[in-house]
Amino acid sequence: MEISESRVGIACPECSEPMHPNDIRMILNDKTQYEKYEDFMVRRVLAVDPDTRWCPAPDCR
To answer: What is the distance of C-alpha 58 from the center of its chain?
Structure first.
């Protein structure tokens, strides 16, 4: 549910500690869902990096 809502800071339902991406990969049985999670993680990192900007032009290099 959290991945489909683009939340990547997923906590353990039992102890509320943040889950490591490897743990999430192990419990997800859906490869597509994990790829979506990875995409959201990359976007999150890039969004907070002050040296990164999104290019509005298609096929930009």
So the answer is: 23
